[in-house]
Amino acid sequence: MSRLSKLSYDRGTLTLHPPPRGAKGWLELAEWDDRVDRFRVPAAQYMDLLERLRLDKTTVQDDAKGWQSFDLERGRELKPFAHQTEALGAWTEAGGRGTVVLPTGSGKTILAHMALEQHKLSCLVVVPTIDLMQQWYTGLKLSFPEADVGLLGGGSKDSSAILVATYDSAALYAETLGNRYALVVFDECHHLPSDFYRVIAEFSIAPFRLGLSATPERGDGRHADLEQLIGPVVYRKTQAELAGGTLSSYREEHVLVTLSSSERERYDSLRAARDAFLQSKNLRLGGVDGWQKFVQLSGRSREGRAAMLA
Fold it and tell me: What pTM does this model have?
């Protein structure tokens, strides 16, 4: 009697050993690793791999997934707005994978709470800043007071069933986080396609992925990668479509400031110092990656610090 093939998670990849007999469809996703005498499959192909094995009528022992299911008890009842209900429905219809584009202040956080409440599975929330990490933590504890919510970043290193992490920390620990969370929420998901951050999605086997952004487009065009990393845009509403109902109406005004001669001289001097540093490092601030690299380099030299302060 042949041994049952075992599917395992290994540092951002999947291994399947011994290879299933007769089944061939999954081989299109796999590469042989001579170092360990195993076939490896990219972690992000987890659901595709399972579907191919199912179509081949092949049973495997799935030891890859390490997430939990749990009960969630609401601490506060919030009636969702129509666009939040519609967005959740569109995301669910897309198989629980995709990006929702909504303007600032329209309740994207509440939408994520609704997705978590729907699935009740271990959830990783990834955010760009420590301030947002704290805001998400507070919001989750208000919605689900008894839930096991933790933080990864800013000195915290929890391993909770619901974990809020900065992009920096989630990328650093992507190999160990990858199989522990069934739902990953990417707040401000336009950050994800950068070279450093994309491993959060690539090393994850999460079947459910929710991207949130008011402005998913990037100057470098890499927002096109979001479809592969998270899923397609499944729902979009503009500020104009929600104004006067969900959002307060507002108007945009440009206020021009006249500088004195000394102020103009100071402004031009500081801008020249900043631009000289950017040029010396071959940096452009037109995209997310450019600003990110500027921040990183600003802490490595006196000139970089001066350019950032400018």
Answer: 0.81
